[in-house]
Amino acid sequence: MKPSVLPSDVDLTAMTPPSSWQLFLSTFCRNKGAVLGFIVLALMVLIAILAPAIAPHDPYELFTGQEQLPPAFLDGGNTMFWLGTDDAGRDTLSRVMYGARYSLFIGLSATTLAMLVGVSLGLSAAFWPKVWGKAVMLVNDILMSYPSLLLAIIIAAILGPSMTNTIITIALVCTPPFIRLTRATAMVELQREYFVASQVMGAGVLRLLFVTILPNCMAPLIVQATMIFSSAILEAGAIGFLGFGVQPPDAEWGAMLGTARQYIQSNVWLAIWPGVAIFLAALSINLTGDGLRDALDPKLKQVT
Questions:
Q1: What are the structural domains, with CATH classification, of the chain?
Q2: What is the per-residue pLDDT for 55?
Q3: Which of 39, 126, 131, 262 is deepest in the core (most CB within 10 A)?
Q4: CA 238, CA 253: separation in Å to the nearest integer?
Q5: Mean pLDDT per segment of 10 residues, for the chain of length 304 residues?
Q6: Cα angle at 285 between 173 and 224, to 5 degrees?
Q7: Which whole-number Å values give the CA distances from 17 to 20, 28, 171, 228, in the listed order?
């Protein structure tokens, strides 16, 4: 009997099942909103990194006699200042660009810190559920019973206004969701056969927690991190607006909104541009998070 031979026109690569990365990428790219959000977010990160090179002016430079100019496309505007100037005569476009550095850095730092603390506490609460786990979840439930923004304002007022204190404040507020999600996911993984096998083989506690269990909990945690990142930027803006965050003359979006508050009737543009920046950052992160959720959830993946 002759061995079967595939026709020469058959593409062997088409018969190969897609890799996990290809499946993730194809699922993510099918979500047009997620792709758009990722592009906007990438542009904002690029602007933040390249701000010293692409900003038209120094964000702290005062242009005497050019205070509160409207945008260049309106009557009374100056082409030197595309988005106008603030109450001290500083270029608004340059300050919005530099503000991306502060706001995105605060959001990313707070989210990273909250994730590190929350994941560690959540894993330990799942591994030792009787005393330590109950104590952790009791404190966690108490913190989650407060509105997050109100709690952030209280903590920021106690710690005092600075960028470091803002990061610590937002990280404390954003930690409870990570604890709850990590604990819930880890408790499911603790019942799996691979975990029992690792215990039988004599794996240590740290290896069981961070090498055996944690990688299998990462998909929902990554999605949660994107949502927390968005919330962190909004909360940083709110804290800065109330005067408890980054202090003027530093160009942070929330602080810019707080300064513009007293000029809202005479020059609304002072508040519009940082407000639009915060809105676009939060929206793009949320859209990207939706795409990550679809791509990382096995139930939502579709093989094309």
A1: 29-296 (1.10.3720.10)
A2: 92
A3: 126
A4: 9
A5: 52 61 81 91 94 92 87 86 89 92 93 95 92 93 88 89 91 94 91 84 85 87 91 91 85 88 85 92 92 72 46
A6: 50
A7: 9, 18, 41, 34
Quickly tell me which residue has 């591994």 as its tokens: 127
Contact 181, 224 (CB under 8 A): yes
- SS3 string of the chain? CCCCCCCCCCCHHHHCCCCHHHHHHHHHHHCHHHHHHHHHHHHHHHHHHHHHHHCCCCCCCCCCCCCCCCCCCCCCCCCCCCCCECCCCCEHHHHHHHHHHHHHHHHHHHHHHHHHHHHHHHHHHHHCCCCHHHHHHHHHHHHHCCCHHHHHHHHHHHHCCCHHHHHHHHHHHHHHHHHHHHHHHHHHHCCCHHHHHHHHCCCCHHHHHHHHHHHHHHHHHHHHHHHHHHHHHHHHHHHHHCCCCCCCCCCCHHHHHHHHHHHCCCCCHHHHHHHHHHHHHHHHHHHHHHHHHHHHCCCCCCCC
Cβ pair 145, 202 in contact under 8 A = no
Q: What is the pLDDT of residue 283?
A: 93
pTM value is: 0.85
Helices 163-189 and 132-144: angle between axes, nearest 10 degrees: 130
- Residue 91's φ and ψ, nearest 5 degrees, are -65, 120
In whole angstroms, give the CA distance from residue 69 to residue 14.
60
For residues 213 and 189, the answer to whether their CB atoms sit within 8 Å is yes
